[in-house]
C-alpha cells in the first residue's frame, strides 16, 4: 500500500519513466567489459594476486571481482604443483621425444604392457603420523584445529625397493639397517631376484620380450647394471630425466601403500604389512595403472 501511494504521488508530480532513477553510491553491477579487461590484465601481469589485492588495485567490491573471475574470465586459483626440478628446454624436448617413442611402440604392438616390470625405491616410516586422512578430527565451530608434529627425519624408517607388473607384485625388498643401495647391491638383491622370478613364471620363454622400467637413479643407470640387464635379455624402457609423473611407483603405488598402513615396531613387521597389502590389491588396479 505504501509503495502504491508513493508511485501515485510520483505520477501526479509528472513522472513519465518507469525505470529506476540513478542513485548515488556504487552501482548495482560493475561487471562491465571495461572491468573485465582491468581484472584480466592485472591477473595476466601477476597470476598470484589475491582478491583482496585486486580490490585495492581496482576499487571494485569483493563480490564483483569474484563474479568476474569465476563467471566471466572462467578462472580458478590452483596451488602450484611441486616438481623436483625445473627442466631446461633441451630436457623438455627430450621428455616429449622419449614419451612419443615409447608410446608409439606400445600402439604399434612392438611392446606389450603385460611384459613391463616397473619399480623404484622409497622410504617408509614405521609410525604413520603424517597421514592427512588419519589426522582429520571433528572440532566445534570456532575452535582451532588440532596440531600434529611433522615427521622427524630421524624417526624410524626403512627403505623399500618394490617392483610390480600389470598383474601384481614382483619384488618387495627392504634394506637392513646400515646398508645402502649401490649398483652391485641393486643387481644382486633386486634385479637377480626379478630375473629368477620371471624365469619361474615363464619357464618356456624366460626373459624374452620382457621390459624393465626404472628411473635414472645412479644404481639404475650404472654401466654394470646396463650390462647385466642386456646379458639377461631385458630391454630397458627409456625414462625422461626428473619425471616422477611418468613412474607408476611415484604417481600411484607408494602413496597408495602409505595411506593404508598403520604403525609398526620394526622393519620386518612393516615389510610383512606391505606384502600383505600389495597382494590384497585387485589385479585390475595394477592393470589400470599401466594403462594410464
Describe this protein's structure.
The chain is of the alpha/beta class. It has 2 domains: 30-80; 94-129 and 154-291, Nucleotidyltransferase, domain 5, CATH 3.30.420.10. It contains 12 helices and 5 strands. It has helices spanning 2-12, 33-45, 51-58, 62-72, 89-107, 132-135, 183-201, 218-221, 223-231, 248-258, 267-280, 283-291, and strands at residues 116-125, 157-165, 168-174, 211-213, 235-236. Strands 3-2-1-4-5 form a 5-stranded mixed beta sheet, with helices on both faces. Strand 2 (157-165) and strand 3 form a beta hairpin. Helix 2 (33-45) packs across helix 4 and helix 7 (183-201) packs parallel to helix 9. The longest helix is centred in the middle third of the chain and has 19 residues, at 89-107. The mean pLDDT is 86. InterPro entries: RNaseH_sf, Transposase-MT_Hybrid, Transposase_1. This is Transposase. Pfam families: Transposase_1 (PF01359).
Number of domains: 2
Q: How far apart lie the N and C ends?
A: 68 Å
Going across the major beta sheet, what is the strand order?
Answer: 3-2-1-4-5
Which structural class should the secondary elements be placed in?
alpha/beta
CATH architecture of the largest domain: 2-Layer Sandwich
The number of helical segments is 12
The CATH class of the largest domain turns out to be Alpha Beta
Strand content: 5-15%
CATH names the topology of the largest domain as: Nucleotidyltransferase, domain 5
Estimated radius of gyration: 30 Å
What is the element string, with H for helices and E for strands? HHHHHEHEEHEHHEHHH
InterPro entries: RNaseH_sf, Transposase-MT_Hybrid, Transposase_1
Organism: Adineta ricciae
GO molecular function, one term: nucleic acid binding
Pfam families: Transposase_1
